[in-house]
């Protein structure tokens, strides 16, 4: 049986909330014009982890997708998941984040306003599927 993760989502730039824990930016690029030492202080995130973001290639194709169309949105998310799980580096990153979230609160963030139309909603699901197995 998988452990319950202390995992949350947030929109980058929103104020930190109690209980959110470590705020991880899962974006391909950091915020433009914001020095690294201001990321946490200005409410962006505590650490940037681009290994969890869609590739630059996939993001460039995003403009071609009509996100109003549920089938196109699903196709994008499916491709993101395949891409994310295709390399050992990103799979290990998923395993690491899931292990951390089993022990302490962690929040995954992106700039998208609507999390249901953002890769972080699929990332949340992937992380839950990779939750450590509890000892029985």
Please report the distance between the alpha carbons of the first and last residues. Answer: 8 Å
H/E element string? EEEHHHEH
**Structural shape:** globular
Query: Mind telling me the C-alpha Rg?
Result: 15 Å
**Count of individual beta strands:** 4
Number of domains: 1
Percent helix range? 25-40%
Tell me the number of helical segments per DSSP (H or I, 4 or more residues long).
4
Outline the low-pLDDT stretches.
none
Please tell me about this protein's structure:
With 136 residues, this protein is of the alpha/beta class. It has one domain (7-128). 36% of the residues lie in helices and 12% in strands. The protein has 4 helices and 4 strands. The chain has helices at residues 56-62, 70-84, 88-103, 119-129; strands at residues 7-11, 22-25, 47-48, 106-110. The radius of gyration is 15 Å and the shape is globular. The model has no long low-confidence stretch (mean pLDDT 89).
Compose a concise summary of this entry.
The protein is of the alpha/beta class and 136 residues long. The chain has four helices and four strands. A four-stranded parallel beta sheet has the order 1-4-2-3, with helices on one face.
